[in-house]
Each structure stands twice: as structure tokens, then as C-alpha cells.
Backbone:
């Protein structure tokens, strides 16, 4: 299960992020069978990547006897032990949505061009696409708005592809992929993540406190019953005991679920050694020949590249980088 999610987000170390079809091929080619000892199919893998059960929310009563989806108000959500943390699940959902052909063409996802899908014209905001010259010997990034609608839509510009690829890679390598620079950039994000973890730990402590207090009240109530202080025929006694048990059990269940989510969140301390290793690996991989794999790494470092007259702007998300 976790392997499928890892392949979707990271690949196998020799390729970039994998789509559902590639994951199916990877599993079947390595004879990694499903629980029925059979070969994987696209539908099976897609369900695993989208089913909230693996995150900790199993849904019952979703369909009628005719297999039609019921209204959300009739769906029963039952908490279950998580296998995949929320952060990983949400990241995969965003990735699947972005890979939807209705959202992004397949050529952008699987094509070899390094900046495809990332690069935009700063003048009009339109995407820049590949144009060729001299019988295909020369390749350029050019404004698609100008190509489709002419200079009245955008004056546009054309930039040699290799020149711009190298320019972006050089800038990221020298200005971003240095351990000291990464540490500075990520400090604020790490602080926010630590604050979030602290709030989760405080919430777990409060739930455990509530469960302990309910257990103590139950013990005092049982002691009072044994001492004959409380009348067993009191109609409110059973309700009182049931209420305390419900509070205790719910608090324990909520605390266990919150603790499991915290442990499975994969939030590890980012050490200087990790930053050095990441920086060295990223510098190496954005220089690989071919666009697919290095483009996947580039997307972790930059989410948008805008080309203006005499200037290239590289924009990125600190949380995505982390």
C-alpha cells in the first residue's frame, strides 16, 4: 500500500513520479501481486490512491441496492486505524487531479521538455510552448498566445530552449541548492510545522486527561456502590455509568487516532546532513539528460517560471520544497 503511494509521489529512484498506468506496469513486471495473488489493474490502483479508508475514514452506506450513489448526508463515516497519513493522501489527490487529461495534457506530463507546463510569458501570462526552426535543428520556447492569436494578443517572445533550461538550472543550483540557503528558506516552514505538531500533542494530552478523569469518576462511583452509599435502584445510576463510559471510550479512541496520525505524518527533524544530501542530489538530477525525470525534481524547486524582457522569474512554494 505504502509502496503504491511512494511510487505516485516519488517514483522508484530512477524515474519521476508515476501515473496509475506506470504503477500497474511496475508492480506487475516485478511480480508484486495483489492480495488475491493476481495481477494489478488500473482500477485497483486508482481505488487505493483515492480511497479515504487508508487515511483513517471508512465510508459505509455509500450506494443503494441499485448501485447508485446516496446523498452525502446518508453516508456513514467510521474512524479506522490509518495506513497513510493525511499529508501524503492529500498530496496524491492533488497530483491525480493535476494529471487529469482535462486539466493538463498528457504531453505535458510525459513529454521530454524540461520546462513544459511551468513556463509562462510574463507579458500576457499565457503558456510558452516549443517551436522549432531550421528543419527542427533549433528549438525555442515561444508565447502560445502570440502563436494562436497573433501580435495583437501579445507581442510575445521566443527564447532558445537549451539556453533557458540551462539558465534556470544554473540559478537554482547556485542560488537555491546550497545547504545554508535551504536552511534559511525552510526555517519559517519548519517552525510552523513544529507549532502544528505541538498543538496535536497538546490535543492528545487533553484527550488522555479527559479519559483518565472519566475513569476516576467511574471508580469512585463503583466504590460508592460497594459501600452502599448509592442506591442501585436509582434510575439515573445506569445513565450516569453509561455516560462516563462513553466519554472515556471516545476520548481514548480519539487520542489513539490522533497519536497514530502524528506518528505516521512522517515529520522528521531536518538536519544539516539531510540538507547537504538533498542539495547534492537535486543539483545532480536537474542536470540529467532528457526532461521527464529532472522536470519532476524541478517541480519541487519551482512551480512557475515567467519569461520577461531581460528577466526570468522563478516562483516556488516553501512548503512544497519541504
Residues:
Amino acid at each position: 500500500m505504502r509502496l503504491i503511494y511512494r511510487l505516485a509521489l516519488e517514483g522508484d529512484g530512477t524515474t519521476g513520479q508515476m501515473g496509475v498506468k506506470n504503477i500497474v506496469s511496475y508492480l506487475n513486471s516485478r511480480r508484486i501481486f495483489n492480495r488475491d495473488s493476481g495481477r494489478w489493474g488500473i482500477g485497483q490502483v486508482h481505488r487505493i490512491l483515492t480511497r479515504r479508508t487508508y487515511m483513517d475514514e471508512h465510508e459505509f452506506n455509500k450506494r443503494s441496492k441499485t448501485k447508485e450513489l446516496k446523498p452525502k448526508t446518508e453516508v456513514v463515516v467510521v474512524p479506522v486505524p490509518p495506513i497513510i497519513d493525511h499529508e501524503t493522501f492529500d498530496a496524491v489527490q492533488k497530483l491525480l487531479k493535476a494529471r487529469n487529461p482535462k486539466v493538463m495534457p498528457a504531453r505535458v506530463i510525459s513529454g521530454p521538455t524540461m520546462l513544459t507546463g511551468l513556463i509562462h510569458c510574463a507579458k500576457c501570462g499565457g503558456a510558452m510552448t516549443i517551436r522549432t526552426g531550421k528543419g527542427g535543428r533549433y528549438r525555442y520556447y515561444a508565447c502560445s498566445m502570440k502563436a494562436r492569436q497573433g501580435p495583437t494578443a501579445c507581442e510575445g517572445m521566443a527564447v532558445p530552449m537549451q539556453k533557458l533550461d540551462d539558465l534556470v538550472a544554473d540559478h537554482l543550483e547556485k542560488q537555491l541548492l546550497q545547504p545554508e540557503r535551504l536552511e534559511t528558506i525552510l526555517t519559517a516552514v519548519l517552525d510552523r510545522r513544529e507549532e502544528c505538531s505541538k498543538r496535536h500533542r497538546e490535543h492528545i494530552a487533553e484527550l488522555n486527561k479527559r479519559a483518565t478523569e472519566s475513569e476516576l469518576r467511574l471508580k469512585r462511583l463503583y466504590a460508592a456502590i460497594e459501600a452502599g452509599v448509592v442506591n442501585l435502584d436509582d434510575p439515573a445510576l445506569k445513565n450516569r455509568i453509561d455516560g462516563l463510559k462513553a466519554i472515556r471510550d471516545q476520548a481514548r479512541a480519539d487520542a489513539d487516532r490522533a497519536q497514530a496520525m502524528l506518528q505516521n505524518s512522517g515529520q522528521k527533524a531536518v538536519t544539516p546532513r539531510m540538507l547537504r544530501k538533498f542539495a547534492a542530489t537535486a543539483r545532480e538530477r536537474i542536470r540529467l539528460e532528457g526532461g521527464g525525470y529532472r522536470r519532476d525534481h524541478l517541480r519541487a524547486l519551482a512551480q512557475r517560471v515567467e519569461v520577461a524582457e531581460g528577466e526570468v522569474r522563478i516562483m516556488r512554494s516553501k512548503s512544497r520544497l519541504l
Summary: The chain has a mean pLDDT of 81. The beta strands are 57-60, 76-79, 119-121, 128-133, 138-143, 158-160, 304-308, 311-315.
